[in-house]
Amino acid sequence: MAAESGAAEVEIEADGVRVLVRQYVAPNVQEGASAPIPVTVQAGPSTTAVVRDKGADSVEASSSQSSETESANGTPVLAPTPGTFYAKPSPDSEPFVQVGDHVSEGQTVCIIEAMKLMNEVESEAVGTVTQILVSDGDPVEYGQPLLLIESP
């Protein structure tokens, strides 16, 4: 419910059970991202719900900063799904890519683990890796920039 509504936090209480869900807010926001939409939740007689909206000011500030970084350092490779970022195929292996490496279109650049499934993330651009934005083992969100590739 939090993800669909854009709310930062949802609290639901029913029959003496209270559930609080907080949505992780990624540090980088893609250019053109819209501000969250306020949501009204209808609650029955034994259920109460509270929805708090994220601050639009912080979203706009992050958007302008990330667009400057993306245009200056290359094309971002975005997370196709939320999960855990892995830079290497196994703990004993070398990373898929490092800063300064040349990548081709379709080359695997990392893995996102989601629900015990390993999803290979492939480059959609040809160029040189200029920056890796997340560390091995970090949680990532859908659409979060993972690394930057500068075209030749």
List key phrases describing it.
single chain; 152 residues; mainly beta; four-stranded antiparallel beta sheet; 2 helices; 14% helix; 38% strand
- Please indicate the percent range of residues in DSSP E strands (runs of 2 or more): 35-45%
Q: Describe the main β-sheet briefly.
A: 4 strands, antiparallel
Q: Give the total of beta strands.
A: 11
| N-to-C SSE string, H for helix and E for strand | HEEEHEEEEEEEE
- Helix/strand structural class: mainly beta
Poorly predicted runs of 5 or more residues: 33-71
C-alpha-based Rg, rounded: 19 Å
Q: Which range best describes the helical content: under 10%, 10-25%, 25-40%, 40-55%, 55-70% or over 70%?
A: 10-25%
- How far is the N terminus from the C terminus? 43 Å
Can you walk me through this structure?
With 152 residues, the chain is mainly beta. Helices cover 14% and strands 38% of the residues. It is built from 2 helices and 11 strands, in the order H-E-E-E-H-E-E-E-E-E-E-E-E. Strand 7 and strand 8 form a beta hairpin. It is elongated.
